[in-house]
Amino acid sequence: MKLPSVEAPADWSLATFDGLRSLEMARLPAIFLLIALTASCGSERTTEQPVNLDRTTISAGAWHSCGLAADGTAYCWGRDFDREPDGSSGTARPLPVRVATDLKFTQISAGDVHTCAIATGGKLYCWGDNTYGELGVGTTAREGTPVPVGGHHLFKEVRAGDQVTCGITLSDDAYCWGTNRWGHLGSATTETCHYGPARPCSKFPMKVSTTTKFTSIELGHLGACGVTGAGAAFCWGINQDGQLGNGTFDFAATPRAVSGGLAFADVAPGLYHACGITTGGDAYCWGDNKDGQLGSITPTDCGASPCNPLPIRVASSLKFVSIEAGEYHTCGLTATGTAHCWGQGLAGQLGDGLQTRASFAPVTVASGAVRFTQLSAGFFHACAVATSGAGYCWGHNGYGALGTGTTELSPRPVAVAAYPP
Description:
By secondary structure, the protein is an all-beta fold. 0% of the residues lie in helices and 42% in strands. It has no helices and 30 strands. It has strands at residues 55-60, 64-69, 74-79, 92-98, 105-110, 114-119, 124-128, 143-148, 155-160, 164-169, 174-179, 192-194, 198-207, 216-219, 223-227, 233-237, 252-257, 264-269, 273-278, 283-288, 300-301, 306-313, 320-325, 329-334, 339-345, 356-364, 372-377, 381-386, 391-395, 410-415. Strands 9-10-11-13-12 form a 5-stranded antiparallel sheet, with no helix packed on it. The protein has a 5-stranded antiparallel sheet with strand order 18-19-20-22-21, with no helix packed on it. The radius of gyration is 19 Å and the shape is globular. The N and C termini lie far apart (49 Å).
């Protein structure tokens, strides 16, 4: 089933998103949660030509994005901090700025309002907001420049999320730190952090409570998922819409196996859903499906919206090499370098040139002849690295997360501006 395209009004406000973090309010329909648009949002701009060709990786966060140049130098753009001293929203930086460090990185991950990156040799550094200890330095003081994460662990993978960070060490152990309000840490903690009400947290990396070894880990808004070397997927955290994929709706404080016996190469949780690709390249999704983020029609009803608490095959014969989940949308990358997205597209985050209410099947990102080698999905935007090394982003751009020098959203890929020296 294909739903009709619905364009969002041009005067919608982004302010409603500031309440999303609490999630104690009633779940509003997603159509009312989007987006700060401008009058030119629906323009038929063609994909811009590459600006510079030195990118190796891009990470799309909540309201900002970051990337690495070929020499390991880190750059970020978009929303700077979520809270200024006067309580106002953070600064919009619509062009890439160099991260203030001489360190060279091999991997970078943009979260909600903090960022983490692995330096050459495996030492992990984080910077930005630190309200719940998500920088892993033993304090809750924010840091404007990269600081080393506490402990003596060396990491091969890091994921920065919403006030939480997780990583995989060189020995394949999973560690998490930051808020544990939704069970992200995968282990019990008695420590609390304060910004308003006290919340459970950990200011230092703590091992996820399992003997399972992971080769990858991903953070969603309300939980986390990891994949083992044998292809088994485990998820933990909130499960109100079946987003842990184990056939139940029960909260899991520690990792629980995703049901179905599938061998996964990658798993990516979003807000109320998660998706994964098998070792054969098939895409499966589970959890909430009110915006089509599962990529298929689901018969199960989770009260207020359709869902599926078990993995269901995405309605496509496409084979994917990677998969990424945003808040209400999902994107996948094929071996030929084409990107495809499904789910909510009101902010243009599906990248097909439209602002669609929902797509229950993958649509092709309108990148023209440009092909991609790496893909990352943020809350309501996505970014990718082209085969040429150029960076492209599309979707919501209220704080400049697309890196184009403006705050106008784009429903199709646009080139990220050149990195400054």
